[in-house]
Design brief:
The protein has about 270 residues and is α/β, with parallel strands linked by helices. The protein has one domain (about 25-270): NAD(P)-binding Rossmann-like Domain (Rossmann fold, 3-Layer(aba) Sandwich). The chain is built from nine helices and seven strands; from the N terminus they run αβαβαβαβαβαβαααβ. The chain has a seven-stranded parallel sheet, sandwiched between helices. Helix 3 (about 65-80) links the parallel strand 2 (about 55-60) and strand 3 (about 85-90). Helix 1 packs across helix 2, helix 4 (about 95-105) packs parallel to helix 5 and helix 5 (about 130-150) packs parallel to helix 6 (about 180-200). The longest helix is centred in the middle third of the chain and has 22 residues, at about 130-150. The radius of gyration is 18 Å and the shape is globular.
Amino acid sequence: MKAAAPSTTLQYHKQTRFAMATRPNKLANKHIVVFGGTSGIGFAVAEAILASSPTARLTISSSSSIKIEATIKRLLQSFPSNAIAGHVCDLATPDLEESISSLFSAIGKVDHIIVTAGDPISRASVHDSTLDSIRAAGQVRFIAPILIAKHGSKYLTPGPESSIIFTGAMVGQRPMEGWAVVAGYAAGIEGVTKNLAVDLKPVRVNCIAPGPVDTELVAGMSDEQRRGFYAVAAKTPIGRAGRPEDVAEAYLWQVLEQAGAADRRYMLTASSTG
C-alpha cells in the first residue's frame, strides 16, 4: 500500500511552529484528549500537539470508530514515537452524559481537555425554529462541553499547568442575519468558560472563537450554504476562509501558556479569520 503523503497541516506546523527545540517541553509525558480530533480543527490541533513534543500522549475522540482508527494510523506515520489512542464518544446521542462519563472512566487521568467537536450547522431564522431544532442546535456545541467539563474535571491533574479549551464562534460576538440561535449558543459557551474558570480554579479554562474555517463540514453543505460561507469569509480581515492549521496554533498556545495563570484563568482568543 502506498504511504499517505504528509498532510499540509503537518507541513505547516513544521514550517511555522515556534522553535520547539529551544523551548521547554511543557507537554512532555502529558496526556491530552481532543474531542473531534479526527477531522478539521481537531485533527490540526492533534498534529500541532504531537509536533510540539515527542512524548506527549494523545487521545482522540469521535463518534466513529472507523474514523478514529484511520486517524491514529495517519498520525502514527508522522509521529511514531508518540502514544496515540482513541475512544468513541458520540456527543449527539441521547445518552450524552453516560457517553462522556464512560470515556473519562476509560482513559483515566488527563492534563488537557480540548473540545473542537462540531456538527453540521443548520442556518435558520428564528421564525423557522422549533423547540426541538433549538435544542438540537446546542447539544454538541453547548451542552456537551459543559458535561465534558463536569466529568473531565474529575480526572484533570490539579494545578494551573492543566487546562480545558472550548470552541466558540465569532458569530457570538458579531451578529449575522439568520444566525440568532447559533449565536446564542456561541455567546453562551463564552459565558460558561468565564464562570468555569472560577469554579475549576486553578485549572485554566479558555475558549477559542474562530471565524469561518474551511473544514470537512463545509464540503457537506449545500451549494447555497457554501456560497454564503465563502461570502462571509471574503469579508474577514484576511479575505478568505481560515485553514484548520491556522487556528490550531491558537489552541497550542493556550495549552502551553502558563505565565500569569495565577491571576488570569480565563482568556477568549478570537481567531484572526473572524
